[in-house]
Design a protein that fits this description.
The chain is mainly α. The chain has one domain (23-127): Cytochrome Bc1 Complex, Chain D, domain 2 (Orthogonal Bundle), CATH 1.10.760. It is 50% helix and 5% strand. It contains seven helices and two strands, in the order αααααββαα. A hairpin with a 2-residue loop joins strand 1 and strand 2 (82-84). The longest helix is centred in the N-terminal third of the chain and has 18 residues, at 2-19. It is globular and about 35 Å long. InterPro entries: Cyt_c-like_dom, Cyt_c-like_dom_sf, Cytochrome_c-type_DH. Residues 21-110 form the Cytochrome c domain. Keywords: Heme, Iron, Metal-binding, Signal. It comes from Emticicia agri.
């Protein structure tokens, strides 16, 4: 009887875990961590959060973009001719793959058509010492 109860508990735990949604793709990561500030369509919030849609920051310097995710941002920036001065927290808790996936998603959506960010690029910048 004890073995059956233990097996039942193990199977329940397994199926509960298997059904838990996992944030593993770029869109899912965006939805969980970016959407609230940058909006579903990537337009941002005027005078608060910069747009990602057709953004020179998104489509420009890859390393700068990766560093924003890893280190956050606490300075005034200009995006598509508009100034923004709101703090963005670092998202360094994301894995290198998650950072690459979300940035690739952003760079290929919202009117953007830039190439993918590779996991190795993120790893190099994360490990780079100043």
């Amino acid at each position: 009887m004890k073995k059956n109860i233990i097996l039942f508990l193990i199977l329940n735990a397994f199926f509960a875990f298997a059904q838990t949604p996992k944030v593993t793709d770029g869109k899912g990561i965006y939805t969980q961590y970016c959407l609230a500030c940058h909006q579903e369509d990537g337009t941002g919030v005027p005078n608060l959060n910069p747009p990602l849609r057709k953004s020179d920051w998104v489509n420009g310097d890859r390393n700068r973009l990766i560093k924003v995710i890893l280190e956050g941002l606490d300075e005034e920036i200009e995006v598509n001719g508009e100034s923004y001065n709101r703090v963005m927290a670092a998202h360094s808790f994301l894995t290198d793959k998650q950072v690459a996936d979300v940035l690739t998603y952003i760079r290929s959506n919202f009117g953007n058509s830039s190439d993918a960010i590779k996991e190795e690029e993120v790893k190099v910048l994360r490990n780079k010492k100043p």
